[in-house]
Write a structure and sequence with these properties.
The chain has about 100 residues and is of the alpha+beta class. About 60% of the residues lie in helices and about 15% in strands. The strands form two sheets. A two-stranded antiparallel sheet has the order 1-2. A two-stranded antiparallel sheet has the order 3-4. It is elongated.
């Protein structure tokens, strides 16, 4: 997007970074009275922050679970596989595949 010298000067003077501009343009809303303005206010940013934190925490839990599964798969490979015997949804016994 093209920027003016005035825009760059005001960014610098007001401590507004390119990242803040990108956030405002991506998540902000058009001002109801001035259609040429995009607004990302404190409350809206707070809600967005909470949503992003919640999403990140869920992804971190998924990552922990995936790492645990990787560890278990490595252990299963080291054992040569595992056999599980069940009958009528009751687990009867288990043993290593390569005995």
């Amino acid at each position: 997007m093209h920027t003016t010298h005035h825009f760059k000067s005001r960014m610098s003077q007001r401590g507004i970074t390119r990242g803040l501009i990108e956030l405002a343009l991506e998540y902000g809303e058009q001002h109801p009275e001035h259609i040429d303005r995009t607004v990302l206010g404190r409350r809206q940013a707070g809600r967005l922050l909470a949503d992003k934190q919640h999403t990140l925490m869920a992804k971190e839990r998924e990552l922990v679970a995936a790492r645990r599964e990787l560890q278990l798969l490595k252990k299963l490979i080291d054992k040569g596989g595992v056999i599980v015997v069940e009958n009528n949804a009751t687990l009867i016994t288990t043993f290593n595949l390569e005995d």
